[in-house]
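During the reporting period the student researcher (J.K.) took over the structure-prediction task from the postdoctoral fellow and processed the backlog of single-chain submissions. One of the processed entries is reproduced below for the supervisory committee.
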Amino acid sequence: MIRWKQSVDQFPDFGMTFGNPDFVKYAQAYGAQGTRVAAIGDLVPSLERAFAAGGVHVVTVPIDYSENERVLVKELRERFSVPGGSAAGSAAQ
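J.K. obtained the following structure tokens:
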């Protein structure tokens, strides 16, 4: 999200090209149970299994950020734009 925000604010892409760790393996390394959700339909069953089993569980859910710019930048600018002002400035008023 930081990389996306830097891009929106026209900052250079610097130091943000790294991947996520394998959180399932990370959880297992500490003795917890790890589950990766592959589809939206897997979320509720994964959570139900985790609660039923008890103990410490990490449920990894991939997030699609492809709509962020449209919703969090363009639509907010349109909604809160003030002539001569910025979206952030007008939203705070």
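The committee noted the following: The two ends are 25 Å apart (CA to CA).
J.K. will present the remaining backlog at the next meeting.
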